[in-house]
Amino acid sequence: MDKKATWDRFYKESASKGEFKNFEWFFGFHSVKNVILPMVQSMSLSHESALHILDMGCGTSALGPCIYSTSPCAVRVTCADISPEAVKLMKVHTSTQPSNKNSSLEFLELDGTELSGHFGARTLDMILDKGTTDALVRSKEGRAKAGQLIRQCVQILKPSGRLLQFSDEDPDARLIWLENEVKGVEEGADVGYQEMGEQRGVSYFCYQISPRTASDSDKGKLV
After folding, report:
1. Looking at the domain assignment, is residue 77 inside a domain?
2. In what order do the strands lie in the sheet with 51-56?
């Protein structure tokens, strides 16, 4: 599941079935909007320009477009995926309108392990990861890539930014792994989580990673 060819084949097969339908890993936007939108609204209070939000490994999920269409504050949503097939489908089939006239939406073909080569350091306000890391860590050779992805996310987030990682992995395992991975970033990061509740009998969690700066390296962890 860490191979580009795997996802190209998956989305080609999905498109060949006829009518387009957004494919959601775990759950859709409505299950997480009460986490994302209040945070976006709060962050926007200290910003004069649109918040830059990256939906990393977007596939054909409606998550990014829904944030674009429902956020009352201005957002610049970038939906990125390694599969050109997924990006092409989203460009063709997404026609939603923004809630804020200053919002924008774009689709980008990009490998998540090459984020720092595309985005500058400390330039993004929020990164969303709904199933992307889970797909990698459960792949035979993907765990190293997943760690690389996490570290690059921390590097490109603003000091006030957040990486929101939605997963069904229990905190006893995921927190330790995340804390170990962010040690590879110069300033480090704070890691915390909140329970999302159950979907179809499976418990989900939102892991939050916030980059540190030299001046606040001793601040407490998120809870």
Report:
1. yes
2. 104-109, 75-81, 51-56, 124-130, 157-167, 202-211, 189-199
Assigned domain for 111 exists: yes
Domain count, the chain: 1
Q: Which of 185, 80, 167 is nearest to 122 (CA)?
A: 185
Per-residue pLDDT of the chain (223 residues; tens, 9 = 90+): 667 888 889 888 887 887 888 999 899 999 999 999 999 999 999 888 999 999 999 999 999 999 999 999 999 999 999 999 999 999 999 999 999 999 999 999 999 889 999 999 999 999 999 999 998 888 777 788 899 999 999 999 999 999 999 999 999 999 999 999 998 788 789 999 999 999 889 999 999 999 987 555 444 444 4
> Tokens 């490998």 correspond to what residue?
111
Annotate 89-128 with b (16+ C-beta within 10 A) or e (fewer): bbeeebeeebebeebebebeebebbebeeebeeeebbbbb
Q: Which domain holds residue 186?
A: 4-14+26-216
Helix 142-156 to helix 171-182 angle, to the nearest 10 degrees? Answer: 60
Task: Report strand pairing: 157-167 vs 124-130.
Answer: parallel
| CATH number of the domain within which 70 lies | 3.40.50.150
| Dist CA 223 CA 54 (whole Å) | 23
Q: Specify if 223 maps to a domain.
A: no
Assess if residue 58 is contained within a domain.
yes
The span from the CA of 68 to the CA of 13, in Å, is: 28
